Backbone:
């Protein structure tokens, strides 16, 4: 993944999952190359794990995605995975779902995806 792709993935995350948005802190370099430095609100493990039906409902009804495969949700623009009830990457705080580091893959060039989501979800 190129650095610009990671930036776009995190921008889409911030649009889709504002309760767990990333904050850009800077750019660093290590032996492997350039690194993007981000922070994310700490989500305590005191929150409950939602049922898969709740996750499905949020992604399908709330975000307009379809189930593409087990734990894969998508549309013409993106696919989201790593969001299932058997892990700790989706937690529930009351009626709100908190998505922690889902994997977002682009099906179209990143600028087209960004434009689509800015128009349709804002």
Residues:
């Amino acid at each position: 993944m190129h650095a610009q792709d990671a930036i776009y993935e995190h921008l889409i995350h911030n649009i889709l999952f504002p309760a767990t948005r990333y904050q850009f802190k800077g750019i660093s370099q290590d032996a492997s190359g350039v690194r993007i430095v981000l922070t994310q609100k700490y989500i305590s493990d005191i929150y409950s794990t939602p049922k898969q039906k709740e996750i499905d409902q949020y992604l399908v009804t709330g975000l307009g995605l379809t189930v593409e495969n087990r734990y894969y949700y998508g549309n013409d623009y993106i696919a989201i995975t790593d969001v299932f009830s058997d892990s700790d990457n989706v937690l529930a705080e009351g009626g709100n779902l908190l998505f922690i580091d889902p994997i977002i893959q682009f099906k179209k060039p990143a600028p087209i995806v960004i434009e689509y989501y800015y128009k349709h979800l804002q």
User: Anything to note?
Assistant: The chain has one domain: 3-121. The chain has a mean pLDDT of 87.
